[in-house]
Design brief:
With 325 residues, this protein is of the alpha/beta class. It is built from ten helices and 16 strands. The chain folds into two domains: 149 residues, Medium-chain alcohol dehydrogenases, catalytic domain (Quinone Oxidoreductase, Chain A, domain 1), CATH 3.90.180; 142 residues, Rossmann fold, CATH 3.40.50.
Length: 325
């Protein structure tokens, strides 16, 4: 097999395309030949040494992919050789991976493997922020950061199905045009517009019911200036680093607003197999029925993984970047 590993933290140049021995499976595992690998911003944070959960080195990066089963361990039920599957939650920058059967999800033959690879993290994250953490209702309003990114585009598609009003933040007019075509209600270019003023203008001065913030950083407290009474802020990323805000002090400035703040990481759902299985069933159904469709920005050879990281770190992507073995 071939895989991309890192032996140390650093820039994209530390991603090494290497030849390794094929993995052997245990009774509870499945061997999958990978045909498409999804790249996430968290992969770049691990490579740089900035992620809260760092692997031991050398490490194969990635945690979601799609392919076909090569062999099945004796204790695994409901899976068979040749079946199309999603593999998630284990290193995936490789041509072949061994994964516990519990982390392998069968998909219909009609589903494209590139779209399947793009599904798990961004759509599960979007789905559970909207429907598990917040329990959004039709007619409510959402502000989503990085609206042209993977999670952002998933929020737009799932938000349309839920009947919610969506405002997206993005950095270029090109991205704004693309996500407008996806069906978002309003787009704010945060480089050329005053975000707080525009959000209040678009909500008649009330603010939004939900904010999905994957950025964090020094301006985190600005979120509270854009939230409706009883509004909910979900923080799910550190693109700009950890917030420097004194959260309790910020909340205490307007106690009558009764804001709620949640932190979300998908592992909270991955560690709940029943909930994960239920949401996978829903999302795969949406995909098969054409109700959602992952946006693929680019497909890059696995051996050029550094190029994929560069695209994400420069925020050039609209939707997902995939690696192809």
């Amino acid at each position: 097999m071939n895989a991309v590993r890192i032996h140390e933290t650093g820039g994209p140049e530390v991603l090494k395309y290497e030849e390794l021995q094929d993995p052997k499976i245990e009774n509870h595992e499945v061997l999958v030949k990978i045909e498409s690998i999804s790249v996430n911003f968290s992969d770049t944070l691990i490579r740089r040494g900035l992620y809260p959960y760092m692997p031991e080195f050398p490490a194969i990066l990635g945690n979601e992919a799609a392919g076909k089963i090569v062999s099945v361990g004796g204790d695994v039920k409901g899976l068979s050789e040749g079946q199309k599957v999603i593999a998630f939650g284990y290193p995936s920058y490789a041509t072949i991976v061994s994964v516990p059967g519990s982390r392998v999800i069968p998909i219909p033959e009609s589903i494209d493997l590139d779209e399947a690879a793009a599904l798990p993290i961004i759509y599960q994250t979007a789905y559970h922020m909207l429907h598990t953490v917040k329990r959004i209702k039709a007619g409510e309003s959402v502000l989503v950061y990085a609206a042209a990114g993977g999670v952002g585009t998933a929020v737009i598609q799932l938000g349309k199905l839920a009947g919610i009003k969506m405002i997206g933040l993005t950095s270029t007019d090109e991205k704004a045009k693309e996500i407008t075509a996806q069906g978002i209600d309003h787009v704010i270019n945060y480089k050329t517009e005053n975000v707080i003023e525009r959000v209040l203008e678009l909500t008649d001065g009330k603010g939004v019911d939900l904010i999905l913030d994957c950025v964090g950083g020094p301006n985190f407290a600005d979120n509270f200036k854009m939230m409706n009474t009883m509004g909910h802020l979900i923080w799910f990323g550190i693109a700009a680093g950890n917030p420097s805000t004194n959260l309790l002090a910020a909340l205490g400035k307007e106690p009558a607003k009764s804001y709620a703040v949640s932190m979300f990481h998908l592992y909270a759902i991955i560690n709940n197999p029943k909930l994960m299985a239920e949401s996978f069933k829903t999302l795969i159904g949406y995909l098969a029925e054409g109700k959602i469709k992952p946006i693929i920005h680019d497909r890059i050879p696995l051996e050029e993984a550094g190029k994929a990281h560069d695209i994400l770190e420069k925020h050039e992507n609209i939707g997902k970047v995939l690696l192809k073995p």
